[in-house]
Amino acid sequence: MGGCPFGQQPTGDDGDAGQRGQHGQDAKDSAYRATLAGVGTGGTGGGVPPRQSPGEHNCPRGSRGEERAVAMAEGLRGWAARHVVPLVGTAAVLVVGMNLGIEWNPLLHHTQTWAGAIDVWRSYAVSDQALGGHLGQVYAPGSGLVGPPGPLVLFAPAVALSQMLHLSVGGPILVEPTAWVVLEPWILLLSSSVLFAADTVACRLGVGPRRRWALMAAEVFVLWDVAFWYGHPEYPVAVALVLFAALDALDGRWSRCGWLFGVAIACQPIALATVGVAFALAPTRRWAGLVVRMAVPPAVVLAGPLVAGWTSAYRTLHLQPEPLFRDHPTPLAHLAPHLPGDWVSGAPMRSIGTLVAFAFCWLVCRRRPSPATVVAALSVAFLLRCLIDPVLVSYYVFAPLAVGLVAAAASSRVRFAAACILAAGVTVYAQLGAGGEWRWPLVVVGGTAVVVGLGWPSPSRAFDQRERAPVAASPGPPGPAVGGGLP
Description:
- The chain has about 475 residues and is mainly α.
- About 65% of the residues lie in helices and about 0% in strands.
- It has one domain.
- The chain has helices at about 15-40, 60-80, 85-110, 120-130, 150-165, 180-190, 195-205, 210-230, 235-250, 255-265, 275-280, 285-310, 310-320, 345-365, 370-385, 400-410, 415-430, 440-455, 460; strands at about 320-325, 330, 340, 345, 390.
- Strands 1-4-3 form a three-stranded antiparallel beta sheet. Strands 2-5 form a two-stranded antiparallel sheet.
- A hairpin with a 3-residue loop joins strand 3 (about 340) and strand 4 (about 345).
- It is globular, with a radius of gyration of 25 Å.
- The two termini are about 15 Å apart.
């Protein structure tokens, strides 16, 4: 178990693990003080300590600092050994993404331009406005933001760094913007957070090392559309936070579970579809705390734009306008309220989808489900949220595909292989395929539903409390055990 990202049994209480850690630290500090007293008194514990030369009185403090440095280095080495699979996946995402961004257009389109993500410069401009204090422009027409401004917070460090370095920004004339060198690696790194979450959950489900490598390859492939092609790191970040929050819910760590769900909702409101898992597993007395923690992060990021530009912010959040001429309308677009032009309001249908997903998670997870069932329920919740949507974009199905692959990894070899092949096909068709309001949603959402179905556990494992033993990530020195969901 030393090489597994998830190595402790559930604690069942938020404070127990922290109290045990604090008691252990207090014992270490007491032992250290006793050691210092023994050194100063010749081991007798009393009397006046002998005089020390100027070069000796700092020896104990120096040796303690060296011990801390060694312990930190060993901890980092152990962490890397336990997470070698997602680290390799992250390196692959960075190397392949940066090289394709530079070579994609020259090789395929014979133009000397860099292939930046479709929405990256629009997000850059809105984040730049927010950093400059113009919060009223966050929900201005053309910003493309219809949810909480968490994505702008994610972009803020890269935008600030590019401005500090006076880097050029992309546009219709500038073909090689130097700010892309900062933005693209940052987007890819943020998006790679889902790889660590997927590997941690797979280890919790007892997935073997070889299959975890295959899972990582599949996750990197489905990450392509949302991370490199569109440049929306908030989706992978939200999925990663939801997976970690689900593990905390299984372990009874309700405080951290609520905060993780709250940050996920602030990044992308699709995470709202999965919070039913937390309320189904949590005792009733924990519900109020969960609601508060889930509401604080979205409220914090929404406060500024709502105060600075109430009219535009309220209209955008209330209606969530979506274009029919640019994205992929579904048959449900006929039932959505129509806005001036070829636009519809996505809020009513998405609210219904969120409520249906919440009810599903509640009904499934209230019967003491196994961890495999909880993960599968998350994938179904994401799927229901996409299914009841009047307008879809190709990367909307990333969330159910990514979580469905994790659930399928814990099933049979045939089901997992079929899920990987089908997820890759859905990702490619969603980006390159064409079709009307029936064919494209039928192929993309239907294929995603099959991937999610392949990950649903068999009846014998659906409500079994016994967990399979975690599997070592790779050969190497065992590191300290890590409890909860976060690596």
